[in-house]
Protein 1
Amino acid sequence: MTTTLEPRGTTGKPARGIRSTPPRSRSTGRAPDNGKIFNRLAATCMTLFALIWLVPFGWALITSLRPNNEITANPTLPWSNNLSLDAYFNTLSNNPIGWWYANSFIVSSLSVVFTIAICSMIGFAFAHLQFRGKAIVMGVVLAGLMLPTEAIVLPQFMQFRAMGLLGTYWALVLPAVSAPIAVFVFASFFRGIPASLIEAARLDGANWWRVYFQVCMPLCRPAISAVAILTFISSWNAFLWPLLVLTQTKSQTIPVGLSGLIGGSAIQYAETMASAMLGIIPLVAVFLLFQRQIVQGVANTGIK
């Protein structure tokens, strides 16, 4: 077996006339291209989903500004030369929308306060306290995520009727407090707090209530923001349960009150769309103002 030696100079370097070939990189250069393709595909999907939401919203906005006779003649026309705010003025003057706004705001605000107070304590107990049957109780709470609201409407209605709470704000606030998703959010966030921090507070003589109020709650502001915003939106949009328990017109919320505008024989399409736009404006404002807190809270709590 013969071995061929490469001619070298006196210094051990390759001789003149023989070029050393650098080793080839294993990187093919396709990763950046794949990243660009993925980013473009994601941007395209986001744009399509945004259009799916914005097209009906824009159509409702334009319809609310068109005259009723023009809407009846051509309801799908995307534009009009006779745009006006008459439908908004008629809706505000002929219906107690101010009361509906006030009722929705009161119910949603109370739901947010009680949901944060109660669900955060339950989540703290699941995260840091040890008691018998903890896994069973946690499973029962999370099983509420699989239970549809419509399945418990009848027994819930009978219960509140026996308690004499029908037609009151408490009939809307108390069912909203039992939010398994809020318990899961707080429990996940509390588990992320370092155990050494809680142990240090306990060694300093702090009881569990003090640990909850002064140590854990100030650290879970993102979770509080996410739960507060999601609870406010869900309470504002609730329709079936408020429709059953609220009987007087002035005590109705925005979704229930707006549904009554289309119950007549002659539907005023412009006023109907104007009322729908008036009902969605607070939700859009809340989302635009607090969207960073929503994203931060969802990211920190690990919800997918």
Protein 2
Amino acid sequence: MKELPTPTLPLSLVTLPRGSLHPGDPGLDRRHLAQRPIGGLQVAWARHEDEVRAAQRLRYRVFADEMGARLQTPLPGHDVDLFDDFCEHLLVRATETGEVVGTYRVLTPAQARRIGSTYSDTEFDLTRLRDLRERMVETGRACVHPQHRHGGVILALWGALAGFMERNGLDTMVGCASIPLRHHGASGVEGGGDAAASIWNQVRRTHLAPIEYHVRPRLPLPLGQFDGTLQIEPPSLIKGYLRLGAEVLGPPAWDPDFNSADLPMMLRIAHLPARYRRHFQAT
């Protein structure tokens, strides 16, 4: 089984093996660390390339096959980009089958320095977040298998992510939350650009971050071309972020390759509601 590569660019002071941020005796087989059964689901951090490939296949199924993304990938049937080798990959498997049914990838501050940016930097000017970067992780490529979108998978992912951040002294999470621009399947929303503009107008009134954290899209969604007055619920993932206390950092960027409008979002661990903090600490 092929081990994952460890990027070692000049900014790195120490060469760390993949997974070294996770707890455990160095003598243990790291493939079995952080595997926890939760209600028929098993949560684990990827330790080997074949596990990352399983996550990338799920991402391709959701983003390309379901949402219509045009992915520039070196491996057919997989969603692969240059950030993947620098990220920690969180997996949820169905206990009965072992199939990967949910995934997140996490870019730590150290790895962001190695690669030189975050994925969000390619979509937004994050200058105003510069003072947060030392304790800020980027999460992305979140997706759930269409047959498992009942809430349990995403809660399992969030619980493992919260524990990861607490163990490693990280307090801020940022990322791009996508609004699909075509309605197809459970992860889509009806209305395309009208839906995205309407969702932005809703969340800016209730969940906009303080101005000192506002960011600007590099390719803005042309909001003026759409009807932003529709009463449309945000995608379930965005609703979940908002319930956790996340804030929106500015208007959406347009990602033509992923066929989506991407909202910049930030969650501070200190802002987690008490009920969710208790739930994540118990998992």
Protein 3
Amino acid sequence: MTTKGHSESIAPAIFRLFKVAHTIKKSLIAMSSDNEDQSQQAQAKKNHNKYRRDKPWDNADIDHWKIDAWDGEKDSLPGGSLMEESSFATLFPKYRERYLREVWPVVTRALDKVKIGCELNLIEGSMTVMTTRKTSDPYIILKARDLIKLLARSIPVAQALKILNDEVNCDIIKIGGLVRNKDRFVKRRQRLIGPDGATLKALELLTSCYILVQGNTVSVMGTHKGIKQARQVILDCMKNIHPVYNIKRMMIMKELAKDPKLAEEDWSRFLPTFKKKNVQRRKPRQVQMEAEKAKAAAADGDAPSGAAAKKNKKKTYTPFPPAQQPSRVDMQLDSGEYFLNERARKAKKLAEKRERSQAKSRERRDAREREFEAPPPSISKKSKNKDETSGDSNKGGADQLDVEKLKSKFSKVGKRKSSDKADVSDFMAGGSTSKKQRRT
């Protein structure tokens, strides 16, 4: 009974296992069929150009990025000419008027070759370019617009006329509003130029562009790639990043571009990374001297004085605001000046001014008179010591004078004066002998 019941319980489990295996087999067959269908579809996609013929431009020797120059004879517009006239105008500064008047014939001849009209208005101070009926190139008017912009920004006419070529582009970068402080702006602009224009020249060589710094703008002429690099360096310079760092980075990138092995690799490991450092500025001399005085006073144990004492002294906190200071009208009301008329007020001011000037003149006069006053008699140390030593002996008769000492003193002075008397013969040719005779 037990074996029979056990076999009956195992049979359903075996049936379920066979059923699961059957479903797995079905799913595997479906997946394999799907993969075959996908591979067949992929092969069908690959062969969609099976009957496609080769075109003339399917050639590796052709540069598809090359911009061909506009040929007026071969190339023409669909309608034969432009439907409407297009014109652009720009103003120029007063100091450019003389130069533009001299070079305008050269500009006119250059624009006539590309069938563009131009006009110089000296009254309004403007330059205008416009298309004509003969204009065939639709883009040349934009080149002419860039030409007059460059001429207005002080670029020489020989350099500005290169903008008419298709491979030359330009960009005028405004740097005037990037720095608020004028002195700081002038320093950063000079940093971009460098000593004797060395920094600007290095930037021109690396970007293959012509760069001119004039006033609040920087004019750049060159290729699109070079203009983009130059613009980044100029904006970084105005953001207080020295152009030398960017120039060094560009030099390394130029050397790496020469190696074909590194064309597909990342160059970040070769390029330098410059971190911004917060360098403490030097304190003013007056602040340094005050700090030294405070340190010396602290070392001596004295109380600090001056600005250091004010700085160290802590103010007591009071929740009430300070008392309001009297206004000018309040002070006039207190002094009674407010009720005076204009004439009396002026007379009072004049009298006060006269009193102040008189007081100053008296002070100056007293100072001048003080210069002619005799200094007080100075008592020497020796005489002071003698007086101290002889003080005890002369206590009784300080007012009495020694007559004998005075007589001997005056007799000595008289003898000295008589011996010092000079004769006229002393100052004559034979006067030296008479002196000897007198001594003998």
Protein 4
Amino acid sequence: MSAPAPTPDAPDAPDAPDGASTTPSAARASTTPAADVAGGGPAGDAQADVVLRTEGITKRFGAVVALRGIDMHLNRGEVLGLVGDNGAGKSTFVKILCGFQRQDEGRIFVEGQEVDFHSVKDARAVGIETVYQDLALVPQLTVYENLFLNRELTTLGKLGVLSRRRMRHLARQYLDNIKVNMPDLDQEVEMLSGGQRQAVAVARATRMDAKILLLDEPLAAMGAKESALIMELVKDLSAQGVSMIVIDHNYAHLFALCDRLNVIQQGKITVDTRVADTSVEELTELMVSAFRRQLQAGQEALGEISV
């Protein structure tokens, strides 16, 4: 595995602040081409295939530094896995990418254009959608109603009567296009299997022309059959050019889903490797070794304090 140059609502890493990057935050609606910024991503012809890139993303929560200058890139149609222990900074990084939180320092580029997110709506406007582990579906609503949640189609002008027939038709058309088998669109979501609910959540995100999907534990608590459904969906979306970032603590899931892996440790990306160039065993050994080093450093620090 090759190491790159220096990269849920609470702070992720119990570290004190250090000399973090002083790169100023991006300006809203900036149109600075990513290729004009030094470092942090592919150059030349490869730049055209990069849909998302970050430079020096830093985030602090008081005295705690959660992210320490993250440089990351995501290619078109690529599935990138984020690996790291609890508290490493994965969730904080994803919350910044989806506009839920703002970075203190650093820059974000989408398809070569610098962007600055002040809200989730800003991120959605440039094609970034997030599918959380709890899926954010309404269990008592039907499949097609969830697909159009908060984006319902209406008729009769100001009366706002729901156009249910059209929503059903478009829902069926879209699910067929992304090869999701959902026999009954009038079935309530709470009656679906875990894999089917995950598929509905992903379909709702991509129906809005999402270019980039952020997936939080997409295979959590699923059986083999349900996992196969989601893995096939991810594969099909990738073939259609949708790029995805996956957070999962199960290394076997990441190796089944992803093209490339980034390891985040103490708020930095310490490893960037293609899945084909490593193994579950090698990744496990890397994480265990890092944990042992952190444990030893903590014990030594406690020893110095006691003295």
